[in-house]
């Protein structure tokens, strides 16, 4: 994998529900983990000790929940300074957040869509740049699932690319969100994938979702990854080469073996496409 990536291989989102199961043994095919800093900053006791021990054994990345990068409220700079301390203390490789907003005077407990407008590009890019100044490293933004696009002046893909270029930040490519949005907003997922900024991809997410109706999918992270999403991940590897990819599972947590099997599926696809790329390079050479 390219050195542009903060981690390598296949990863698993860490949840407190199963941290104890990983305390003694981390399967070899899990090469990095991810946590939400909001859930772990200032955590002590047994969970704190277990987390600290895991950080000494495997690389971690952070995926935030509450930065509210597109919201109208001022950035919570005190929180961002805590995030920086957390990243530094545990040698965490990157910090990502959702390209959305989740609060104003209070927290909304949901990810709301940012209008796809030029004014929003300028506003969000400025907030990303300020965030990067405080945390002392690039911010990685994630393409999110959304269920309405009020006031749109450009496409979702154009909006994402414009923000990344203006803010000079990185991309967390969520494969499941692309699939969910392609159903809900009637666009071609592979076409969307093909215009993402290759040189800005830090890593990827893959997850399951809920089929509410034939034309409505809900991003839940509460079920197994389905075949069309796996195929879309393969397409991404074909387009951009193999990049780090992490399994998210937040609800309806299955057995650890089921989680390990899905992470192993990521790893097998990475090996398969990595070998194909090596063969292609050798033939050209």
Summarize this structure briefly.
This protein has helices spanning 45-55, 77-89, 118-135, 156-167, 175-184, 189-194, 227-240, 256-284, and strands at residues 10-13, 32-35, 60-63, 95-98, 101-103, 107-112, 139-142, 170-174, 201-206, 210-213, 216-218, 245-247.
Notable features of this structure?
two-stranded antiparallel ribbon; single chain; TIM Barrel; 40% helix; 12 strands; 8-stranded parallel β-barrel; alpha/beta
Query: How would you characterize the largest beta sheet?
Result: 8 strands, parallel, barrel
Q: Which architecture would the CATH scheme give at its second level?
A: Alpha-Beta Barrel
Spans of at least 5 consecutive residues whose pLDDT stays below 50 are 281-285
Structural class: alpha/beta
Query: How many helical elements?
Result: 8
Q: Could you report the average pLDDT, rounded to the nearest whole number?
A: 90
- Percent helix: 25-40%
What's the structural domain tally? 1
Beta-strand segment tally: 12
State the end-to-end CA separation.
19 Å
Binned strand content = 15-25%
Oligomer: single chain
Spatial order of the strands in the main sheet? Answer: 1-2-3-4-7-8-9-12
Q: For this structure, what is the CATH homologous superfamily?
A: Divalent-metal-dependent TIM barrel enzymes
């Amino acid at each position: 994998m390219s050195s542009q990536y903060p981690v390598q291989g296949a990863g698993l989102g860490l949840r407190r529900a199963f941290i104890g199961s990983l305390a003694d043994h981390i399967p070899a095919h899990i090469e990095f983990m991810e946590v939400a800093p909001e859930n772990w900053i200032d955590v002590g006791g047994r969970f704190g000790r277990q987390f600290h021990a895991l950080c000494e054994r495997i690389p971690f990345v952070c995926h935030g929940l509450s930065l509210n990068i597109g919201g109208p409220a001022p950035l919570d700079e005190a929180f961002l300074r805590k995030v920086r301390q957390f990243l530094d203390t545990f040698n965490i490789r990157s910090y990502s957040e959702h390209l959305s907003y989740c609060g104003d005077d209070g927290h909304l407990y949901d990810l709301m869509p940012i209008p796809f407008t030029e004014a929003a590009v300028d506003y969000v890019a400025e907030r990303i740049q300020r965030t990067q100044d405080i945390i002392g490293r690039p911010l990685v933004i994630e393409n999110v699932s959304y269920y309405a696009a009020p006031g749109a002046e450009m496409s979702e893909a154009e909006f994402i690319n414009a923000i990344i270029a203006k803010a000079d930040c990185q991309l967390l490519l969520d494969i499941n969100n692309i699939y969910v949005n392609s159903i809900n907003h009637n666009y071609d997922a592979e076409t969307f994938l093909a215009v993402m900024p290759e040189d800005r991809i830090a890593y990827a997410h893959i997850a399951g979702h809920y089929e509410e109706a034939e034309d409505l999918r809900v991003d839940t992270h509460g079920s197994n990854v389905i075949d069309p999403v796996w195929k879309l991940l393969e397409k991404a590897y074909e387009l951009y080469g193999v990049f780090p990819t992490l399994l998210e599972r937040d609800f309806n947590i299955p057995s650890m073996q089921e989680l390990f099997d899905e992470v192993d599926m990521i790893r097998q696809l990475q090996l398969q496409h990595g070998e194909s790329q090596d063969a292609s390079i050798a033939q050209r050479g």
